[in-house]
Design the sequence.
């Protein structure tokens, strides 16, 4: 696998080594040994999958300690814009984000470490999205910030009037008003 560093330390894009021929393709989507050696030591404990249509925007979500999560995400069908936002107070990249397009054609994966909010927007008619988490879902530990916070400056690549949100995602606070954030330097693993 090829690990591509981003402008924010710890947030990486992973490109698998693809083997193609007239029958189709094959690639190793995850190797614990290689991931731990090249990205960071993480033990994934839960896999999730969602199906969404064009305009759906999910996020920006995170889980608070002791249930903080890292995620390794990828698209099986369609295309999304996937976003990680640094929400660690005191971080030199606090409030900054990394956005990457994940598609069924590029087979890229995106690693979002603990201490970041995560979200994605659906760019095609239909998307099947998969993610590995290194901690179990804990509803009492949910946190979120507004997807459209102007201070974040995220271009979701879909017109705002086409965005489809869950009722919950319509009511998250701006980053500056969030009642709980991570602290830079806090041990999250």
Sequence:
């Amino acid at each position: 696998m090829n690990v591509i560093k981003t402008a924010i330390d710890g947030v990486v894009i992973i490109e698998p080594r693809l083997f193609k021929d007239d029958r189709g393709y094959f690639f190793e989507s995850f190797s614990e040994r290689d991931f731990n050696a090249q990205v960071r030591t993480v033990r994934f404990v839960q896999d999730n999958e969602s199906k969404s249509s064009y305009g759906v925007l999910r996020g920006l979500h995170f889980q608070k300690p002791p249930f903080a999560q890292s995620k390794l995400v990828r698209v099986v069908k369609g295309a999304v814009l996937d976003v990680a936002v640094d929400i660690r107070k005191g971080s030199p990249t606090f409030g900054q984000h990394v956005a990457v397009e994940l598609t069924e054609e590029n087979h890229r994966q995106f690693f979002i470490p603990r201490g970041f909010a995560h979200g994605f927007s659906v760019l095609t008619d239909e998307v099947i999205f998969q993610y590995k988490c290194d901690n179990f879902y804990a509803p009492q530990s949910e946190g979120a910030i507004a997807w459209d916070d102007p201070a974040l400056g995220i271009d979701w690549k879909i017109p705002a009037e086409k965005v489809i949100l869950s009722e919950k995602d319509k009511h998250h606070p701006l980053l500056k008003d969030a009642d709980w954030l991570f602290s830079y330097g806090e041990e999250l693993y």
